[in-house]
Here is the input.
Amino acid sequence: MTLHLVRHGRPVIEPDRPAAEWELDPAGFVEVWALRDRLPSRAAWFCSPEPKAQQTAQLLTDSDVGIIDELREQERATGLLDDFHDRVAAAFAQPDRPAAPGWEPLSTTRARLVPAVRRILDVHGGLSGDMDVVLVGHGTAWTLLVADLTDHEPDLVRWRSLGMPDVITVPTRLR
Here is the structure.
């Protein structure tokens, strides 16, 4: 079984609204469609409840897509921060503390995300391991998840280089 983690497409940034409410930018639809060939035709599909993730999934597959609340991104307060990348790095350095006012500690994000994904993999990978899984969601969440699944430290260089959209492929043999 292979796990495909899709980072959502480019959103329309609305500084006065939480990023969790942002919609996908129609100007970036072509970039999302370009990922279709990199994803399996036969897979179980799930996504975050955030609009940009759901809209990305709708552009990528004609299959049914399960909406899983636990796949949402780290919760963050409204507003853009000039030092966003530094704040995310601080969140990874001190995962039990909010990196900015109104931000969820990454340990809380991880505690919500990882068990949900493990349940999905247990159900859809099964003992035979023949069903691929595609999850559509968010860069910070996927960075946490890959670290957990591979038993490595979070890769912030990879996080910074992720495109919108992008795909991380993880062959899974759960520990």
About this structure: The first strand starts at residue 2 and ends at 7. Residues 2-71+82-171 form a domain with the Rossmann fold fold (CATH 3.40.50.1240). The chain has a mean pLDDT of 92. DSSP finds six helices and five strands in the chain.
